[in-house]
Amino acid sequence: MLNAFANDGFPASHKLDWPNMAKTAIKITYPNSNTIWTTADTVKLKWNTRNIPGNKTIKFYLSKDDMVVQELGIFENLQYADGIPLHRGLPAGDNYRVIGIELFPDDKYSIAKYATPFFTINKASRPAKKVAQKPAEKPVVRNTFEGRKLTYVKELTVKGKEIRINLWDHGRKDGDIVSIYLNGVAVVSEYYLEYRKKTFEVQLDASKPNDLFLYAHNLGKFPPNTVSIEIVDGADSENIVLNSDLKSCEAVLINVEK
Fold it and tell me: Which DSSP string corresponds to the chain?
């Protein structure tokens, strides 16, 4: 939850000297309060960490009015990332923040998060209108559900139509209540997230891409709702982190190998 951060964006619990603490921490040094971005530009991120190895990953979001408006990406802890495109449709404003969240921490009870001070994003000038070209035909994929936008963070191909899914809370247990939908049908309904894995099996439709998405019924104490999902296909498995708030849902697209 963004208001859990101090004015400089660094959690009060992390204010002690870094060498004397074993917990992990993230501090984003760019963007900062003097930053001005322009929609449709490519941007960079800079950050420092404590007790997070370089091969660990951090997920970054762009928020406006404490609501996530764009996922900026998942990056290894190299303390720098660039070439990140901003959505052209972002509204202008001076109330944007970047949020960084440690993924798959060694200590699941202590997950490092950080929110920058507010900064500005301006609108880009409208590009010249181009002659529309007929797009290549693609399978129809769901992009909204009950008025919420679906954002696909991963596309997978599995060998069989029957897969097993393990679901558990990613980070702190904070009262998140979620449902999991497959192709618009709830396979887990209004589930209170726990650290203990919940396991269920689903059958996919081999004739089309299958959308599996997280639907938040509340925001818990630390929005957005974040879950870890393991998709098990025989001897193979894939771990994915999904987020959801009351306006948007992250999703996975699953294809069955033909």
Answer: -GGGB-TTSSBGGG-S-GGG--S-EEEEEES-TT-EEETTSEEEEEEEEES--TTSEEEEEEEETTEEEEEEEEEESSSEEEEEEPPTTPPPEEEEEEEEEESS-SSTT---EEEPPPEEEEPPPPPPP----PPPP------EETTEEEEEEEEEEESSSEEEEEEEE-SS----EEEEEETTEEEEEEEE--SSPEEEEEE--TTS-EEEEEEES---SSSSEEEEEEEEETTEEEEEEEEE-SSEEEEEEEEE--
Is residue 128, in this structure, part of any structural domain at all?
no
Print the domain residue range for 172.
Answer: 144-256
Count of structural domains, the chain: 2
CATH classification at residue 17: 2.60.40.10
In a domain, 183, yes or no: yes
One domain for residues 151 and 250: yes
Per-residue tens of pLDDT for the chain, all 258 residues:
444 444 444 444 444 444 445 689 999 999 999 999 999 899 999 999 999 999 999 999 999 998 999 999 999 999 999 999 999 899 999 999 999 999 999 888 889 999 999 999 999 877 677 777 777 666 778 889 999 999 999 999 999 999 999 998 887 777 788 999 999 999 999 998 888 889 999 999 999 999 999 999 988 777 788 899 999 998 899 999 999 999 999 999 999 998
- Of 63, 90, 122, the last residue of a domain is 122
Which CATH number fits the domain that encloses residue 178? 2.60.40
Give the pTM. Answer: 0.45
